[in-house]
Write a structure and sequence with these properties.
Layout: E1 2-9, E2 13-19, H1 37-42, H2 45-57, E3 64-65, E4 75-77, E5 89-92, E6 98-103, E7 107-113, E8 118-124, H3 126-131, H4 133-143, E9 149-153, H5 166-175, E10 180-182, E11 188-190, H6 192-202, E12 206-210, H7 226-229, E13 236-242
Parallel strand pairs: 3-6, 4-5, 9-12
Antiparallel strand pairs: 1-2, 2-13, 5-8, 6-13, 7-8, 7-9, 10-11
Keywords: Copper, Hydrolase, Metal-binding, Transferase, Zinc
Protein name: Laccase domain-containing protein
InterPro entries: Cu_polyphenol_OxRdtase (IPR003730), Cu_polyphenol_OxRdtase_sf (IPR038371), Cytotoxic_necrot_fac-like_cat (IPR011324)
Length: 244
């Protein structure tokens, strides 16, 4: 079920986790804990989310907030579950509400200030890296009163596998130089994870934890990857909450 799970205790307790592809009800190439569009269309999403909530918080009815991700930089504040906002970042100070980010090669980022009781979840692909969605989420949390933040960077495609045209690499590197990479076979590539980490470290007062740094979604069959599987790829999730 989980590629990583942890609890951080401050003035409040913050729970964080990143899923793998196991423990759900989806079948075929989407097997089995698909949390993406195919699961929604097949009616499996609610079941898989219930299993996620039970494993994460001990209750399948734990409220979860999702977003309709569009590779932008908008960050929405949510106070409960409901219609997913069109955004690539969520923030909340509502205890017990789990924030969910879904990916299949992009970088999932979870944020928390345990002392302030604030958390965030961010979807950072190549366009979001360039647009600055991660710094935007940090700024939104600080506007709500966050001070010392912790960021967990979850499993994503690595720079040795994420091949892109040279022109595309140059465009991204012009904005985030740390994202420059070369594939293991010598062609232009991007390391969006390294770019996200650089953006986080550029924001004063953010402690960065890179989760399972050696795991690449393309290389690891226990994780979903759009690059490896194509349109038949499911979606992984990062989830964070302030424990009630």
């Amino acid at each position: 079920m989980f590629a990583y799970q942890s609890t951080r205790v401050g003035a409040t307790t913050v729970d964080v986790a990143f899923t793998d592809r196991h423990g759900g009800v989806s079948g075929g190439p989407y097997a089995s804990l698909d949390l993406g569009r195919h699961a929604a269309e097949s009616g499996e999403l609610d079941v898989n989310l219930g299993r996620l909530a039970e494993a994460f918080a001990g209750d399948p009815g734990t409220p979860l907030a999702l977003m309709s991700q569009v590779h932008g930089r908008d960050v929405a504040r949510v106070d409960g579950p409901g219609e997913p906002p069109v955004a690539d970042g969520l923030v909340t100070g509502t205890a017990g509400l789990g924030l969910v980010v879904r990916v299949a090669d992009c970088v999932p980022v979870l944020l928390a200030d345990p002392d302030a009781g604030l958390v965030g979840a961010v979807h950072a692909g190549r366009p979001g890296l360039v647009a600055g969605v991660v710094p935007a989420a940090v700024e939104r949390l600080r506007a709500l009163g966050a001070d010392r933040l912790v960021a967990w960077v979850g499993p994503h495609v690595c720079g040795s596998c994420y091949e892109v045209p040279a022109e595309m690499r140059d465009e991204v590197v012009a904005v985030v130089p740390e994202s420059a990479a070369t594939t293991s076979w010598g062609t232009p590539a991007l390391d969006i994870g390294a770019g996200v980490v650089a953006q986080l470290r550029a924001a004063d007062g953010v402690e960065v934890e890179v989760v399972d740094a050696s795991r690449c979604t393309i290389e690891d069959d226990d994780l979903y990857s759009y690059r490896r599987q194509g349109p038949a790829s499911g979606r992984l999730a990062g989830i964070v909450r302030v424990r009630p």
